[in-house]
Amino acid sequence: MKRIAFISEHASPFAILGGVDAGGQNVYVSELAKQLAAGGYLVDIFTRRESPDVPRCVQWEEGVRVIHVDAGPPEVVNKEKLLPYMAAFRNDMLAFIKSSGIRYDLMHANFFMSALVAMEIKAILNIPYVVTFHALGHIRKLHQGEQDQFPAERVHIEEQAMHTADAIIAECPQDQEDLLRYYHPAAEKIKIVPCGVNLDELYRIEKQAARERLSLPQDEIILLQLGRMVPRKGIDNVIRSLASLDCQRRHIRLLVVGGDANLAEQKGTELFRLRQVAIEAGVQAAVTFTGQRKRDELKYYYSAADLFITTPWYEPFGITPLEAMACGTPVIGADVGGIKYSVADGVTGRLVPPNDPDALAGAVDSLLANPQALTAMGAQAISRVKRLFTWNKVASQLDGIYSNIISRYKTATKELSEFRRAV
């Protein structure tokens, strides 16, 4: 049985999604771990301890454990400030491996800091690793400039990790293009494997029933934005688009799901900024900020909406469009990154330029004007997800990549051992 270590320094399977640092990566790690375990792997997820009360090792699912690593204070720390604790993360992970006597066949690093840990453990224990970056420092710098809060050495760490990794997982063709253009790794190392959806968890519910469950009006047009509350997600763009939609007369409401509602009145938070955007645009009456919602509630929000909207200016993949599509809700998404890969323009929704509220409003208008086309798009969205984007399919692709690397390492180790005996 193959045993692998997932490294995910800031994204734990236990996190409540929709916060500043809890989103697609958490889903990616947890869903892949479960699918791989169902396929016969033993998976340990190493993530940073964020509370003194959590056990060192938790049997989370059959075949999947979560290992809490001591690295820095046992409390929530913004991921932009975690890099100084990665040496401690590496040392504590090594201590766990040594004390438990486990030999991992492979590591899968998630994000650049986990890649740094994997790179150093590979140098010490000769364990191969693959890496999914989830976002690239160079692209972030291009868009955010001086507002980027990550340490300057991020890009250098990413470059080193690409050089030493045994495979680099690109989540879409745009991700592959960015890797090659800005980092120049060996092209053969890059493997395109998308993200997926758990169809046992996210599926279509009849709209009326979903709205009844959430106590939402049946006669409103509901637009939905769901995800992490961070500037690059472009939620301000969605809010500004409402000014062109005559929301009061047409009974249009935007639900913004995510973020800590307790911080909405706290200056400096993204939720506070977004509330101010709504006030300045004169659309505050048409926007409802719900705060975070539990994972098992999300299918009701997706199903209750007439349209799901996501217009980030940078998105390596984006899981929420797939989740909306799995629930039969057409998606209007920014024509960037993974969204232009997952959303079929004119078939399962529409693609629009990022940071263009007028173009977004025009797309909303055109789709709402044709209810029959909207219904067809919802059905085609479900079909597209089932055909291309399930976690089972994703895990199967990764299993092929893992198995090839593990086999190569075992052969090389055996040949080296035979050579040493011969001399």
Description:
With 423 residues, the chain is α/β, with parallel strands linked by helices. It folds into two domains: 3-196 and 391-422, Rossmann fold, CATH 3.40.50; 207-388, Glycogen Phosphorylase B (Rossmann fold, 3-Layer(aba) Sandwich). Helices cover 43% and strands 16% of the residues. The chain contains 16 helices and 14 strands. An eight-stranded mixed sheet has the order 3-4-2-1-5-6-7-8, with helices on both faces. Strand 12, helix 12 and strand 13 (331-334) form a beta-alpha-beta unit. Helix 7 (207-214) crosses helix 11. The two termini are 32 Å apart.
Distance between the termini: 32 Å
CATH topology descriptor of the largest domain = Rossmann fold
CATH class (first level) name of the largest domain: Alpha Beta
Instruction: Give the count of structural domains.
Output: 2
So, CATH architecture of the largest domain?
3-Layer(aba) Sandwich
Quick rundown:
The chain has 423 residues and is an alpha/beta fold.
